[in-house]
Amino acid sequence: MIAASASVLRPRFRISRVFLHGFLISMVLVWLFPLFWAVYSSLRPISDTIQNGYLSWPSGGLSFVNYQNFWTQADLPYYYLNTLVIAVPAVVLTLLLASMVAFACTQFSWRFNLTTLMVFTAGNLLPPQVIIVPLFRIYLNTPLPMLGSIDIGRFSFPLLTDNTLLYDQYLGVMLIHVVFQTGFATFVLSNYMKTISKEITESAIVDGAHVLRIWWNIVLPLCRPALAAMATLLFTFIYNDFFWALLLMKTGDRRPITSALNNLQGEFFVNNNMIAAGAMLVAIPPILVYIFLQKQFIAGLTLGSTKG
b vs e for 223-234, b when ≥16 Cβ sit within 10 Å of the residue's Cβ? Predict the structure, then answer.
């Protein structure tokens, strides 16, 4: 009797489970291999790679010379600040606009709330490459007033250059990111706000609270996990962008940090090991943002996963 019960409690050996775990482990290795290879390449000099090939151990050992060279040659602190000047205001403005639209479409019943939400969501289906030519012409023909500059330490970031056009401006790149990211942020935040009972909004209205006060003091604090998750995703999307900065900016020292990697590619020679080291340094800010917002990020993504 004891032997029979022990055999029942013993987990059964399933070949399918072995294949499943083997498949998952192999996929993890395939996914992590480029990262490990980039780290390995960044720690060896390019001269040793050219002499002995990529599939060899460096004769002089591993070092951080490529990281030091990239930090000095690419003027990395300046490009870090370039990217932050673009990414941080764009993320904040996107979250504010998307939360307003999501709040209006989920907490109030009016004729075009579903249509408005569908329009914002449908904007995600438009490929950016489709509007390159008309958007480029709009930027070349849109005058703007002088807005001064942003001073951060010894660096100065003019919001507008002398041409006073939307083209080749930090503001222009900010706006295009806001336009293309607001639809996705609205879709995510609206799904989150649907879980908030409308009775809270109705009770606040009965108590005499203004709509903007309800949105700012009641709804936004309840949406903190979703806002943190969206902030992490939006910052990563905007930080890693290369397409819009290359298209809408002509001044090299005004472009974001992804351009710092591109600027190191010479006409006749490319130091791939130093570019790999630069890629590791460039990836640090999004990783730090995820680490600081990890708890809220996971809470925002898993909302409703246990509900029927």
Answer: bebbbbbbbbbb
Is residue 223 included in any domain, yes or no? yes
User: What's the predicted TM-score (pTM) here?
Assistant: 0.82
Residue 244 lies in a domain: yes
| 247 token code pair | 């298209």
On whether residue 90 sits in a domain, the answer given is yes
pLDDT tens digits, residue range 88-142? 999 999 999 999 999 999 888 888 888 888 888 887 788 888 888 899 999 988 8
Evaluate whether residue 304 is within a structural domain.
no
Domain holding 105, by residue range, is: 85-263
d(C-alpha 179, C-alpha 169), whole Å? 16
Which residues, other chains included, contact 195 with Cβ-Cβ below 8 Å and sequence gap of 6+?
Answer: 303, 304
Radius of gyration of the chain (CA): 25
CATH of the domain at 119: 1.10.3720.10
